[in-house]
Design goal:
Elements: E1 8-13, E2 41-43, E3 51-57, H1 60-67, E4 75-81, H2 87-95, E5 98-101, E6 104-107, E7 112-115, E8 139-144, H3 151-158, E9 163-171, E10 174-175, E11 184-187, H4 189-196
Parallel strand pairs: 3-9
Antiparallel strand pairs: 1-3, 1-11, 2-3, 4-8, 4-9, 5-6, 7-8, 9-10
Length: 200
């Protein structure tokens, strides 16, 4: 049997790195951290000031499937917010909040949201967030099935608790567990099929 030519990688995109292999405006990009074949590109994106899990592949069918709203899959984010987020704010996030998307009002879909009882174990960020002794900076877990531009940041701001740090921890059943910023791991086609089967 001829082996598949498709290649799959998961990476932990560091903070302040573009989700592309071409640098612009002097900013760091994926090429500064990861070496992959020329035809391998990221599926979706993470904002410059966000970090965490990114899937890279040359499998265009997987790319189309994951980016197609009809094949909704979960994206789990670990979010550190500015201030002691309230239960009321969590309930608002769960039900959906109104944000701006392309200059128009948009109501986000219902999602899963909860506060971490204890801060999750996450890699140190360089530079770290600004620490203010009198203002709490708790972590919450937010799981969406959609991915509008800067959606998580807009959602937490809409309920009065701006995002300080944003990490994408999971895409479907694939997680960033064990990865540090700048790490990359290869996946087989079977790995991808099994890990994403529940979502696509």
């Amino acid at each position: 049997m001829k082996p598949s030519a498709h290649q799959y990688f998961i990476v932990y995109k560091p903070y302040q790195v573009l989700s592309q292999f071409t640098a612009t405006d002097g900013k760091k990009c994926l090429k500064d951290y990861f070496t992959v074949p020329k035809n391998v590109y990221p599926v979706g994106r993470l904002d410059f000031d966000s970090e965490g899990l990114l899937l890279l592949t040359n499998d265009s069918s997987l790319n189309k499937k994951l980016l197609n709203p009809q094949f909704a899959h979960e994206r789990e984010y670990w979010v550190q917010v500015d201030g002691a987020i309230t239960l009321e704010a969590i309930l608002q996030l769960q039900k959906g909040v109104t944000i701006q998307v392309d200059g128009k009002k948009y109501c986000t879909l219902p999602c899963k949201a909860q506060i971490f009882k204890t801060a999750p174990s996450v890699p140190e960020r360089i530079p770290p967030i600004r620490f203010r002794k009198q203002i709490p900076a708790p972590w919450m877990q937010l799981t969406l099935t959609e991915g509008k531009n800067r959606q998580v940041r807009k959602m937490t701001a809409a309920v009065g608790f701006p995002t300080l740090r944003l990490i994408r921890y999971r895409i479907g059943n694939i997680t960033a567990n064990g990865l540090l910023p700048g790490d990359m791991r290869c996946l087989s086609a079977l790995d991808v099929a099994e890990l994403l089967a529940a979502n696509i």
